[in-house]
Amino acid sequence: MNQADIYRVALDERSYDIHLQAGCLKNIGDAVRKLFPDAERCMVVSNDVVAPLYLDVVGKSLVAAGWQVFKHILPDGEHFKTVATWSEIMDALMDSRLSRNEPIIALGGGVVGDMTGFAASCYRRGIPFVQVPTTLLAQVDSSVGGKTAVSHPHGKNMIGAFYQPRLVWIDSDVLKTLEPNQLRAGLAEVIKYGAIWDRTFFDFVEAHAEALLALNEAAVNKVIVESCRYKAEIVMQDETEQGVRALLNLGHTFGHAIEAMTHYTVYLHGEGVAIGMRMAARLSEMRGDAPQGTEAAMVKALTALELPIEPPKFTAAEWLDAMGHDKKNIGSRIRYVLLKGIGEGFIAEDVANDEIELLIASFESDI
After folding, report:
1. Average pLDDT in the 5-13 region?
2. Are 156 and 245 contained in the same domain?
3. Taking the C-alpha atoms of 321, 322, 328 and 333 in order, what is their torsion angle to the nearest 10 degrees?
4. Catalytic residue IDs
5. Does one domain contain both 49 and 80?
6. Are 272 and 353 members of one domain?
7. How many CB atoms lie within 10 A of CB 288?
8. β pairing state of 104-108 and 129-133
């Protein structure tokens, strides 16, 4: 086994490690045992796609480390990220009678991680949880930072809490069984870090797009490590998104609206974000915030990563209504993350609705 990359998310008593190592999934039992030496029981929450692949490995590792293991399997899909599905996790926790020092482990992608974390934050007013992300998107983004939530028909992730995991355990080998569209969706969150923070990283991801899509181990491990480092550094500055952490939402205001308007059944989250980043880049140019060529650079990178770039056809009124439910808004104002150029994001609270109407019209005229 190769050497582990370990990054510490320093949040005082809520601090935890991000552990990245190819092949480390089989060692999760010992890792959790070190965190909770006196606990006896745990629960693993997964879904019906990931569980047949990896639940046996995780379960055997936990049992070998002395754990009594409960299991709960969710249906797969963003459209199951609901209060009803979350309630089923709560029912399973009630049936297991886990105590307040016994952990719940999320084995899956962002939906599993978000719902498991939210359940952990609520059950007995908070029990520890561990993230074992199995998609690239979860490994580079959603498993780090403590955002937990379920969605509502009016908006994505509208019901939730900031609740940090006790450990993030990343095995890059699990990406070998990831569907290609899920891999591409994760790369949208990777390129986001470069777009808001580091032009050099943005250029690296674009230049290595073919290697990343082919799951070249060195390229993949580099982008996971770098993405986790960027995410952790921002979270340590702004844990509950009062300021700089909002930059991580580049493309998300538009992307979440896309998901909601298409009922979470057409686009993966990362696909919506990719389209949203293209829209944010164009809006930045239209407003004069970013130089000409910013949108073209974004389109070139997203296309290299084989991500969608064309917004679905909805009226400006529908877009504004969907974005009006975004949890990042301040009062009635819709907040957008825009660009001063590739590598420099900023938060804009002064975007007028007529600017959005012009943006939507500009895409309609592209046809």
Report:
1. 93
2. no
3. -10
4. 125, 147, 189, 231, 241, 245, 249, 252, 256, 269
5. yes
6. yes
7. 8
8. parallel
β-sheet bridge partners, residue 330 = 333
147: three-class secondary structure by DSSP: strand
Same domain, 151 and 191: no
Q: Which residues contact 185 (CB under 8 A, 6 or more apart)?
A: 135, 136, 137, 268, 269, 270, 271, 273, 274, 307
User: What pLDDT is stored for residue 326 in this prediction?
Assistant: 66
pLDDT tens digits, 120-140 = 999 999 999 999 999 999 999
Cut 0.70: pTM above it: yes
150 and 258, same domain (yes or no): no
Count of domains observed in the chain? 2
Q: Which of 17, 86, 74, 71 is nearest to 41 (CA)?
A: 71
Instruction: Please compute the mean of the pLDDT values over residues 203-225 and round it to a whole number.
Output: 97
Q: Measuring CA to CA, which residue among 73, 249, 260 is closest to residue 147?
A: 249
Q: What is the largest CA-CA distance in the chain?
A: 64
Domain of 338, CATH number, reads 1.20.1090.10
- Residue 46 is encoded by which pair of tokens? 């997964």
